[in-house]
């Protein structure tokens, strides 16, 4: 509650059980007296139009009969009232009244009275427009730079802007992607309409773009319109504010600058007329209305913000200057000159409480009673604090807020991967090339301590590995029970998975406490290497080689990879061959004299899985030996050139796949007819060629890898790896678009490696090298690089990182890793 209350200058209660909103209040010299004194125009959803000219005898007086100049019932609900130069041939002010299906423009005039009843006021209908669509709100201004008159723009509930040039209808345009209408305002300096879409974006549209865009007589564009008649409606600028907007106001300080003020559900934004954020203020309450107006201090702006606690706050930019208590919750607020009193604050509530007030410093009559001083008993306070903490713990337990140990005791997940492959493979496609596809059995046991309901087990493995069943449901599990499920995992594809780790995730809820609260437990497991790999013949020569340095003596490969060497060999095996299903060969060598291991293969992408397995198994080996300081590192140059060749090859395959998909779409009907005839002929036994044809017709080429990785790397470059605030302030795009080539992606990956080599860290903590940043919602945009980095991209990647040591076991990777998925 505010210490100061708004000083009531004049007030009135309008009608009975009438409703009002933010567009129902307007202040202007509507009868054109030229005295500079405003009149209060109020419209209601019941269709009543009222015009007031308050003349209180003393401060705080209620409405007198002579204060009401005019009251007329217009039958239709009044959505908004505005005053402007709406009639052609004159610059007199007229009143525009917006109904749901009609726009009416009136002239308001008064006649001097000769008796004690005073002056008489009347309205005259100048013209009206019947609307083909249901209206939501309107704005007005000198659209297109016209002089001496105002044009009106009405927004319909389905997102159409209808422009009226006074007595005539000009055109209508649909806003792209409109779902629900938002607040609408017009900026005369930029000649633009500002609104907030249902996507929570502030959008600006030039009037000239609207005028020359395709006509919106029909919502769907015809083919002829798409080909040439009219131009596409393009947004001038957009800004994601992350919340719905209640109102928009435009303030012009001079001819060279104006600001856009947006009142959100929890924040107050001030934008430049080009869409950049000038400042914003987070509100600690739910606002109901606002009004920016000029400040006495140059370069600042004052803003009145009303909220649902019946408070009216006065801000100067983002600084709170005053807070005052109102007798009602305002839905509309205006400032005007009434009866020679300037700066009167006029507020209107949703149930018709109209009040004119001004700010004063009279405090409330309530005074806090004096508190008797007494000495503090610290022992008693300590006992009371402990008792309160015990009560809080008991309440938290009763509301389902459990400690982690208790939650883990409720459900215990055990995963056992069979040490041997299945004697009979469960893979539906039994062969990859000339190799038989094996499978391994995985058992998951769920042991419950309490009753659980709606338990669902989900199994995740890295593609192209797939489980025979990845979803299990248990409607109700009794206390102290164990449920076990089994499934097989096998390879379904001709490429190598990025890793052999799987994850068993169980979601469930408890029927006791607070039923329905979902809880999740998970357990990770590792699949055997022999599921995707067979013993192979080592090779002395290879096109691609990778050397891993360690700080410990070399370990026999037979100890690290049992089952991948001949049993007749001795324990000190320093060379081993691996052959992936499908034919790819990888050779692993352990140095006898140094602490190094070398992985080599004819294909660059085959190096990763064996390298990853080597690091994991070395770490496990030394952990069992009690060694805590074991590390792996890579001291060579980052092989970006080979990696980029894979990216280009993958992108070329993608383009070819899209062309093939277009060709198949044209011939799919004929192929389906031929297939049905052949299937009828062969009946139950379907030949293999027909199965491959069915897969080809149903399959689609996998896309999106280049866009996803570019977005992930760009996000890192503009957050934790950013070099300046300029990169952090870039606008973000909310959609992934198909690239024309891989140049931008390779440039961003090179910058990522360069900044990591220079000490960058992939984290957003405050102790990181880069300062923490606040990123607006949305996607990622391309990162502009300096001239030095532009030249560095064109150099050979082997020259970028000479002699730098990369710790393989400690370097984190982004959520979408650019080192995965190319082989797919």
Automatic annotation (TrEMBL):
* GO cellular component entries: BBSome; membrane
Top-level taxonomic group: Eukaryota
Residues in domain PTHB1 GAE? 437-525
Domain named PTHB1 platform: residues: 528-635
Biological process terms from the Gene Ontology for this record are:
cilium assembly
Question: Which Pfam families does the UniProt entry name for this protein?
Answer: PHTB1_N (PF14727), PTHB1_GAE (PF14728), PTHB1_hp (PF23338), PTHB1_pf (PF23337)
Query: Which part of the chain is the PTHB1 N-terminal domain?
Result: 1-363
Q: Which residues form a coiled coil?
A: 371-398
Span of domain PTHB1 hairpin = 638-706
Q: Which UniProt keywords apply?
A: Coiled coil
Q: Which PANTHER family match?
A: PARATHYROID HORMONE-RESPONSIVE B1 GENE, PROTEIN PTHB1
Q: What is this protein called?
A: Bardet-Biedl syndrome 9
């Amino acid at each position: 509650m505010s210490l100061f209350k708004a000083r009531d200058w004049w007030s009135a209660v309008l009608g009975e059980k009438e409703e009002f909103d933010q567009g129902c209040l307007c202040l202007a010299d509507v009868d054109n007296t030229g005295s500079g004194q405003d009149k209060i125009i109020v419209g209601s959803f019941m269709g009543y139009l009222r015009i007031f000219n308050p003349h209180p005898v003393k401060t705080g007086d209620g409405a007198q009969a002579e204060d009401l100049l005019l009251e007329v019932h217009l039958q239709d609900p009044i959505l908004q009232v505005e005053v402007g130069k709406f009639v052609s041939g004159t610059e007199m002010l007229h009143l525009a009244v917006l109904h749901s299906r009609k726009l009416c423009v009136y002239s308001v005039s008064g006649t001097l009275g000769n008796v004690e009843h005073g002056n008489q006021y009347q309205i005259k209908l100048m013209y009206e427009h019947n609307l083909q669509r249901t209206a939501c709100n309107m704005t007005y201004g000198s659209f297109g730079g016209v002089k001496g008159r105002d044009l009106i723009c009405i927004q319909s509930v389905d997102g159409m802007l209808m422009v009226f040039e006074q007595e005539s209808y000009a055109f209508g345009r649909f806003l792209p992607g409109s779902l629900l209408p938002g607040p609408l305002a017009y900026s005369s300096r930029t000649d633009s309409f500002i609104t907030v879409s249902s996507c929570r974006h502030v959008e600006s549209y030039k009037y000239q773009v609207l005028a020359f865009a395709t006509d919106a007589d029909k919502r769907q564009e015809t083919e002829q319109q798409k080909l040439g008649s009219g131009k596409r409606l393009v947004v001038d600028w957009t800004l994601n504010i992350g919340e719905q907007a209640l109102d928009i106001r435009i303030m012009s300080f001079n001819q060279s600058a104006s600001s856009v003020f947006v009142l959100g559900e929890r924040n107050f934004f001030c934008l430049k007329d080009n869409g950049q954020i000038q400042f914003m203020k987070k509100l600690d309450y739910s606002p109901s209305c606002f009004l920016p107006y000029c400040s006495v201090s140059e370069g600042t702006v004052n803003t009145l913000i009303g909220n649902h606690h019946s408070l009216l706050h006065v801000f100067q930019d983002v600084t709170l200057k005053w807070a005052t208590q109102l007798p009602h919750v305002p839905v509309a607020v205006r400032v005007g000159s009434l009866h020679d009193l300037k700066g009167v604050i006029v507020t209107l509530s949703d149930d018709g409480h109209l009040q004119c007030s001004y700010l004063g410093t009279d405090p409330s009559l309530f005074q806090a009673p004096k508190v008797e001083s007494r000495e503090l008993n610290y022992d008693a306070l300590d006992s009371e604090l402990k008792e309160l903490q015990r009560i809080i713990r008991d309440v938290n337990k009763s509301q389902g807020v459990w400690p982690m140990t208790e939650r883990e005791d409720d459900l215990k997940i055990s995963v056992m991967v069979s040490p041997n492959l299945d004697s009979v493979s469960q893979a539906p496609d039994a062969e990859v090339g000339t190799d038989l596809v094996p499978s391994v059995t995985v058992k998951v046991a769920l042991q419950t301590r309490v009753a659980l309901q709606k338990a669902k087990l989900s199994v995740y493995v890295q593609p192209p590995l797939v489980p025979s069943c990845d979803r299990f449901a248990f409607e109700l599990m009794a206390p102290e029970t164990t449920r076990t499920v089994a499934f097989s995992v096998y390879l379904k594809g001709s490429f190598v998975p990025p890793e052999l780790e799987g994850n068993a995730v169980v979601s469930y809820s408890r029927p006791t406490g607070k039923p329905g609260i979902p809880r999740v437990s998970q357990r990770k497991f590792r699949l055997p290497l022999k599921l995707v790999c067979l013993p192979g013949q080592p090779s002395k020569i290879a096109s691609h080689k990778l050397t891993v340095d360690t700080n410990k003596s070399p370990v026999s490969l037979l100890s690290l990879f049992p089952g991948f060497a001949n049993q007749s060999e001795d324990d000190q095996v320093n060379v081993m061959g691996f052959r992936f299903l499908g034919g790819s060969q990888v050779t692993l060598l352990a140095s006898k004299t140094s602490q190094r291991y070398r992985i080599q293969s004819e294909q660059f992408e085959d190096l990763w899985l064996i390298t990853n397995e080597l690091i994991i198994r070395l770490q496990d080996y030394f952990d069992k030996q009690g060694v805590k300081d074991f590390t792996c590192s890579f001291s060579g140059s980052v092989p970006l050139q080979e990696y980029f060749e894979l990216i280009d090859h993958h992108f070329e395959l993608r383009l070819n796949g899209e062309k093939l998909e277009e060709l198949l779409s044209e011939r799919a009907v004929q192929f389906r007819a031929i297939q049905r005839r052949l299937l009828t002929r062969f009946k139950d036994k379907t030949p293999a060629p027909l199965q491959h044809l069915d897969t080809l017709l149903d399959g689609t080429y996998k896309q999106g890898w280049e866009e996803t990785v570019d977005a992930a790397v760009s996000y890192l470059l503009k957050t934790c790896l950013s070099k300046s605030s300029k990169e952090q302030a870039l606008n973000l795009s909310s959609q992934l678009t198909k690239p024309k080539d891989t140049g931008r992606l390779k440039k961003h990956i090179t910058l990522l490696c360069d900044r990591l080599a220079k000490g960058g860290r992939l984290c957003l903590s405050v102790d990181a090298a880069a300062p923490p940043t606040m990123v607006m919602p949305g996607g990622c945009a391309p990162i502009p690089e300096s001239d030095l980095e532009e030249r560095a991209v064109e150099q050979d990647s082997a020259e970028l990182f000479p002699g730098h040591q990369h710790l393989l076991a400690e370097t984190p990777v982004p959520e979408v890793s650019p080192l995965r998925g190319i082989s797919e």
